[in-house]
Amino acid sequence: MGTTETNRSDGSSRLDRRLLLERLSSYWLVGAGFFAVALFGLIVLTLVQQSIPIVSEYSLFQMMTSSNWDPASDEFGFLPAIVGTIYVTVLSMAMGTPLAILAAIYIAEYAEGRTKLIVSSFIDVLAAIPSVIFGLVGLIVVVPFVGDYLAPAVGAHSIGLGIVTVSLVMAIIVTPFMISLSVESLEALPDELRESSLGVGATKWETIRTVLLRAAGPGIFSAILLGFGRVFGATIVPAMLIGGQTAIPESPFDAGETLPTLIVNDFGELMSIPLTQSALILVGLTLLVVVWIFNFGAMLVRRRLQRRWQY
Amino acid sequence: MSNETAIRTEDLEVTYTGNREVTALDGVSTEFAENKLTAIIGPSGCGKSTMLKSLNRLHEIQPNAEISGEVYLGDEGIYDTDEPLPEIRRRVGYVPQTPTALPLSIYNNVAYGAKIHGNYSNSELDDLVESYLRKVNLWDEVKDRLDDPGAELSTGQIQRLCLARSLAVEPEVLLCDEVTSALDPISAEQVEETLEDLKEEYTIIMVTHSMDQAKRLADDVVFLYLGELVETNDTRSFFENPQNERTQEFVKGHTAVDYDDEPDEESVTDEQPVATR
Amino acid sequence: MDRYTEQRLFGLLARASAALILAVLVMVVGVTLWRGGRVFITDPAVAVTPPGSRYMLDGGGGFLHAVLGSIFIVVPATVVASILAISTAIFLQSDYSSERTSDVINMFLNVLWGTPPIVYGVFVLTIIIAAGAQTSLIFGTIAIAIFQYPIMTRYADEALRAAPDTVKEASYGLGATRFETARMTVRAALPGVIAGIIMGFARGIGDAATVLFTAGRSTQMPGGPFDPATTLPILIFEQAASFNAEVRSHAYAASFVLIITVLALILVSKLLAGKFARFAPGGRHS
């Protein structure tokens, strides 16, 4: 009799403990859930607040279009870095995107069994290699290649460091992310799509080009945009390989700079010249805003494609 | 079966080699008559889908299917041949079980195969699309929205769109894999009506797990059991006077028990690629 | 071009693209191992020797400070980030948040996921300046944790989503609370969650842009959490282009250590995923 009594009271206090844990944990989880929002808000607020000094001093338009970057004499022209960033992004994506999509097609549609397993694990490995190692190998291999062979071959002059060198390395760095996302989208497609297209006598390639690439289009499109964001914000590889020159590059074989390398190269001096700090933080904010705009634009385009290319 | 033979198989054997070996078809030799609708029936997992797909080599998109024997389209084999594979698949069309619109407009879903195979002018294509959509009784429903995505149609409409798409490349034989099983009763009836119209003009081979459907639609019946051909006959004789003991059981069993449980036949064909992943 | 030639051409191009990428991978790993391996043959203790007093000029001593710095910065960061990430991922499941809420949070996570790491570096540095503190190990940890958080959350969320609903149903059916059920779901999704944590660790240990201005670029052994420190990627970044061959060789050796670490982490994550797959009723995914 006594034991049942104890059991029951023990049971109800245990239930109380469990419910208390449930309540406390849900507070924590709600907090953790909104941490992403809070973090993003805090980052934006901090960067905006710190950018105010430079924006109130110089007009945004003036800074974007001036090619003179010389903080010591209060000249803050972003144009060379903007041009460099566009150069690197366009070149790397132009080389990397077709490469990645073709490789994804190989893995999803051609490779079978063991080969497929091996190739896709290699892609995973490639994705995990730190970019600083790509930079180092770039210095050892790509810099002499561009300086001694590629540039002379097209009749240009290059010291090896420069926009082309960065683009070649970034084109490789960016492929694994695009490949694995594209492979995922292709493999998610039902076999009926393949059967339907092959069943009316299309070749495998016609099926891939007309049917599969469209049906997987929204996913592949996101993959490309993700790659774009990576190249756009890449810091370490450009900083190691672009050659750091604060003038507008005349050819892709020239040295140059990108928005992130501007930050890396000049952040050391910021303590002495206050406006530089604000200018560089503005650059950081710009990176964030552009990535944000692209994410948002991607969402809209993706939605359109999903309707247009539904299956 | 006094009619001309459109397509026949000779000792067809298909094996899936994965982590375990499955013989889906075990030496099947049979004939399909021209301009008739032949139903392939049999219990789940007996190799009906494999049989169908091996008639235009679609099973080859599974990475580990091995085949021996031969399929003759008219007089020529489709395995031992110099003819390119896509051309064979044009001549023997295929409509999958799940209604599948290609990620194209309604118009281009129909024109897709035709565009690949021939040089049509735009007005010729317009005519072609219209005539095939009429043929599957879909034209009146979609004529005002030809540029909308095909996938925005209802599943029943999509299945008829698939038929139009397959017919638009003028196949000699049309393979239909349980084309009504994913549809609601009303859409299924519409598709059946369409097939009824089409079988005057085309050689249609249809897999079905519904005996009633086979009775309603088919001219001939092929009965498969565990990868083996048990009996083939014209529909009337098959159901009224089955020769083989197993057929008798199957026909009788069907009338007694509702044989409409979901087929897990797919597990034989679809398990293969999963296993390699 | 006739359609069969086109078909062959593109089949070939697809194969060639995959082959090219694999060749580059082999080259990157090969060059790193070869160059770094040669340094280790002549100076086997370079990774466990503290740096000399004029390290950046003559490369005297070794780079133990960067090895330790990497460990002291990335290990705590991974712990903090994975706790936060798993909690966020649990909250994102339907038991805790409506679809609308989780959509909004996912949108922010996506933005964070795509944010260039350098922005995190700038952000943390701004905080350091505002707080009047100096760049140090603890701020490196914070920056790396922020960087890892969205990566790990995505992996964990995917893993939890992939866990079969039957686990939830069974758990609720026994009268378990949401939290108890969530713990069971995490257990069922463990292979994916662990793989995510390890991938986050690998990304964290390889990243330089976040710690470049936050950890302090020290050339001495790390003192405490509030002293400047450095990491392997920073060391490689600073020394790779040095004119002094001795200094440069340390970058090669450090790359050797880094790439072996990353490769080992990937291997471990694949093995662990296989091992823990026993607890996942749906079999292994990912």
Automatic annotation (TrEMBL), chain A:
<comment type="function">
    <text>Part of the binding-protein-dependent transport system for phosphate; probably responsible for the translocation of the substrate across the membrane.</text>
</comment>
<keyword id="KW-1133">Transmembrane helix</keyword>
<dbReference type="InterPro" id="IPR011864">
    <property type="entry name" value="Phosphate_PstC"/>
</dbReference>
<dbReference type="GO" id="GO:0005315">
    <property type="term" value="F:phosphate transmembrane transporter activity"/>
</dbReference>
<dbReference type="InterPro" id="IPR000515">
    <property type="entry name" value="MetI-like"/>
</dbReference>
<dbReference type="InterPro" id="IPR035906">
    <property type="entry name" value="MetI-like_sf"/>
</dbReference>
<comment type="similarity">
    <text>Belongs to the binding-protein-dependent transport system permease family. CysTW subfamily.</text>
</comment>
<feature type="transmembrane region" description="Helical">
    <location>
        <begin position="219"/>
        <end position="242"/>
    </location>
</feature>
<dbReference type="Pfam" id="PF00528">
    <property type="entry name" value="BPD_transp_1"/>
</dbReference>
<keyword id="KW-0472">Membrane</keyword>
<keyword id="KW-0812">Transmembrane</keyword>
<feature type="transmembrane region" description="Helical">
    <location>
        <begin position="117"/>
        <end position="147"/>
    </location>
</feature>
<feature type="transmembrane region" description="Helical">
    <location>
        <begin position="159"/>
        <end position="179"/>
    </location>
</feature>
<feature type="transmembrane region" description="Helical">
    <location>
        <begin position="27"/>
        <end position="48"/>
    </location>
</feature>
<protein>
    <recommendedName>
        <fullName>Phosphate transport system permease protein</fullName>
    </recommendedName>
</protein>
UniProtKB/TrEMBL annotation, chain B:
<dbReference type="InterPro" id="IPR005670">
    <property type="entry name" value="PstB-like"/>
</dbReference>
<keyword id="KW-0067">ATP-binding</keyword>
<keyword id="KW-1003">Cell membrane</keyword>
<dbReference type="Pfam" id="PF00005">
    <property type="entry name" value="ABC_tran"/>
</dbReference>
<dbReference type="GO" id="GO:0016887">
    <property type="term" value="F:ATP hydrolysis activity"/>
</dbReference>
<dbReference type="GO" id="GO:0005315">
    <property type="term" value="F:phosphate transmembrane transporter activity"/>
</dbReference>
<dbReference type="GO" id="GO:0035435">
    <property type="term" value="P:phosphate ion transmembrane transport"/>
</dbReference>
<protein>
    <submittedName>
        <fullName>Phosphate ABC transporter ATP-binding protein</fullName>
    </submittedName>
</protein>
<dbReference type="InterPro" id="IPR003439">
    <property type="entry name" value="ABC_transporter-like_ATP-bd"/>
</dbReference>
<dbReference type="InterPro" id="IPR027417">
    <property type="entry name" value="P-loop_NTPase"/>
</dbReference>
<feature type="domain" description="ABC transporter">
    <location>
        <begin position="7"/>
        <end position="251"/>
    </location>
</feature>
<dbReference type="GO" id="GO:0005524">
    <property type="term" value="F:ATP binding"/>
</dbReference>
<dbReference type="GO" id="GO:0016020">
    <property type="term" value="C:membrane"/>
</dbReference>
<feature type="compositionally biased region" description="Acidic residues">
    <location>
        <begin position="258"/>
        <end position="269"/>
    </location>
</feature>
<keyword id="KW-0472">Membrane</keyword>
TrEMBL record, chain C:
<feature type="transmembrane region" description="Helical">
    <location>
        <begin position="63"/>
        <end position="92"/>
    </location>
</feature>
<feature type="transmembrane region" description="Helical">
    <location>
        <begin position="12"/>
        <end position="34"/>
    </location>
</feature>
<feature type="transmembrane region" description="Helical">
    <location>
        <begin position="104"/>
        <end position="129"/>
    </location>
</feature>
<keyword id="KW-0472">Membrane</keyword>
<comment type="similarity">
    <text>Belongs to the binding-protein-dependent transport system permease family.</text>
</comment>
<dbReference type="GO" id="GO:0005886">
    <property type="term" value="C:plasma membrane"/>
</dbReference>
<feature type="transmembrane region" description="Helical">
    <location>
        <begin position="251"/>
        <end position="273"/>
    </location>
</feature>
<dbReference type="InterPro" id="IPR051408">
    <property type="entry name" value="Phosphate_transprt_permease"/>
</dbReference>
<dbReference type="InterPro" id="IPR000515">
    <property type="entry name" value="MetI-like"/>
</dbReference>
<keyword id="KW-1133">Transmembrane helix</keyword>
<keyword id="KW-0812">Transmembrane</keyword>
<keyword id="KW-0813">Transport</keyword>
<dbReference type="InterPro" id="IPR035906">
    <property type="entry name" value="MetI-like_sf"/>
</dbReference>
<dbReference type="Pfam" id="PF00528">
    <property type="entry name" value="BPD_transp_1"/>
</dbReference>
<protein>
    <submittedName>
        <fullName>ABC transporter permease</fullName>
    </submittedName>
</protein>
